[in-house]
Amino acid sequence: MADKINIVLLAAGKGTRLNLNMPKPLCPFMGRTLVDFVINEVLDFCASEKLEAEIDLVVGHQKELIIDHVKQNYPGKNIGFIHQKEQLGTGHAVQVYLEQKANAEKQNLTFIMCADTPLLKKSIFKEMYQMFHSKNLKGIAASFQALNPTGYGRIVRSNQGFSIVEEKDATAEIKKIQEVNSALYLLSTSHIKENIFNLSSNNKANEFYLTDLFKPEFAVEPILFEDAGSFEGINNLADLEMVEGHARSRKIESLRAEGVRFVDASSVYIEQSVKIGKGSLIYPGVHLMGETILGSNCIIEPNCILKNSKLATEVKVLAGCYFEDVEVDSHCQIGPYARLRPGTLVAEECKIGNFVETKKAKLDKGVKVSHLSYVGDAEIGANTNIGCGFITCNYDGANKHLTKIGEDSFIGSDCQMIAPVQLGDRVYIGSGSTINKDVPDDGFAIARERQVTKPGMASRFLKKK
Ligand code: UD1
Ligand code: CA
Question: Is residue 371 flagged as an active site residue?
Fold first, then answer.
């Protein structure tokens, strides 16, 4: 029978050293927030081990913001909240948890971890879980070797057994130990229950240390993980930048393994939710953000920024483009220097060229807008060609209006569409026209001043040397 398990995420601390005007768990990280990483990995672990989990966050500082975030982003996941009003230490956080969590003892096992270690992996949870069962222990603390152990609790192994000694309470000898406590623990719920209320705060920090549940008299053991990187925590802005860099490298490695090519991955900024199909090629300086999804065999040239955008297969985006909330179907070529704004929907085989801006624009198959245009609040039919310098005048100062152009049409260069206006299929618009009346199917329209030419008169305007 599968175990029932409590999962306690400690997130009540102030995170003072991070120096951001938000609670640490909500600190932006890879396009999500710090706490999302731990929650997602935990959910993933429980699902793959088929564990019935009771997940709770211990919150304190700016708890409303954290609670709102979790409720919004994890509907139906039944994540609970424990309120730790005063933060008297990690041991105190777990005391408060047990006091408020009436059914905690129904779950025989309890995982405890911090919300500020975003690189934790489910393989680590799994290894601890297996060890717990094979060794019949009361507690396991995950440890790693730190090049610089300063600030961490040290793992003290002796003939009597094992204990964790906090930096502040450590002797010079103990401070030399490089094996440190990661603050990820798996404990039997009964061990916590029997001992957590006996903790003393008689130590240098005057705090209740959770680590005091690991003492030689208990059947507890450390488990040393080679992969120290997975335990990197975030305490200040330098950590944030470094750890996010490591998360990015992980993300890039996993994409590479799926057949995505990077010319210079070190210069690519990519967020956690991004998906990229096999055979796609990403040039330097590309930013792929939010829920961006690229199909297979796409090419993204240098310095493009794509946010929440979906590209189908074999889309080529030339250098310097900026996309936000757009969808582009297969075999399109876009850019260089195109700006596709929210609500742009581009069907297959379209071409959008340099210095084109689109917004709420629906382009059917094979549309070409090759140069210097603004296409906003518009629908353009299949195979229509839009000349250079085209503008939809969509805004009258108060409201936005729609421009509709049918299929197989040709719009000459330097035309303006004063919306609302509707052009049929197979229309032809002469260059330089300002169109403010509808044009029927097969219609030709031209709306510009006739040219006046006066031979010899130029000298009147040309300055004499
Ligand atoms: C803790 C461990 C230390 C370990 C280190 C790893 C203890 C006593 N020490 O130290 O052995 O090497 O993590 O990073 O546990 N929190 C609460 N309520 C509190 C206090 C803390 O929820 O009253 C939360 C914090 O928000 C944070 C986590 O617990 O997410 C850890 O607290 P922190 O103060 O950072 O512990 P460390 O001093 O780093
Ligand atoms: Ca810490």
Answer: yes
Domain with CATH 2.160.10.10 in the chain: 252-445
Q: Are 425 and 406 in contact (CB under 8 A)?
A: yes
Distance CA 155, CA 158 (A): 10
| Ligand 1 neighbour 209 (Cβ under 6 A) | yes
Class assignment of domain 4-231? alpha beta
Q: Considering the chain, what is the average pLDDT of its residues?
A: 96
The model's pLDDT over 11-52, given as tens digits with 9 standing for 90+, comes to: 998 888 888 889 999 999 999 999 999 999 999 999 999 999
- Which ligand is nearest the CA of 60, by number? 1
Selected catalytic residue, list 69, 191, 287, 371: 371
Lookup result for tokens 């997602």? 40
pLDDT in tens, 353-405: 999 999 999 999 999 999 999 999 999 999 999 999 999 999 999 999 999 99
Q: How many other CB atoms are found less than 10 A from the CB of residue 453? A: 5
Strand-pair category, 179-188 with 109-114: antiparallel
16 CA to centre of ligand 2 in angstroms: 11
CB of 228 closer than 6 angstroms to any ligand 1 atom: no
* pLDDT, tens digit (0-9, with 9 covering 90-100), for 63-87: 999 999 999 999 999 899 999 999 9
**Which residues of the chain are in CATH 3.90.550.10 domains?**
4-231
Q: Whose CA is nearest to atom 31 of ligand 1?
A: 114
Quickly tell me which residue has 């609790």 as its tokens: 153
d(CA 99, CA 213): 17
pLDDT the model gives residue 465: 62
Question: Which residue among 39, 94, 111, 114 is best mutated to probe the pocket of ligand 1, counting the most ligand atoms within 8 A of its Cβ?
Answer: 114
CATH number of 252-445: 2.160.10.10
116 lines ligand 1 (CB under 6 A): yes
**Ligand 1 pocket, residue 214 CB under 6 Å:** no
- CA–CA gap between residue 258 and residue 274 (Å, rounded): 13
Relative to the alpha carbon of 209, which ligand is closest?
Answer: 1
Q: Which two tokens stand for residue 217?
A: 């008299």
SS3 content of the chain, % helix, strand, coil (to 5): 25, 30, 45
Q: Could you tell me if the CB of 93 is within 6 A of ligand 1?
A: yes
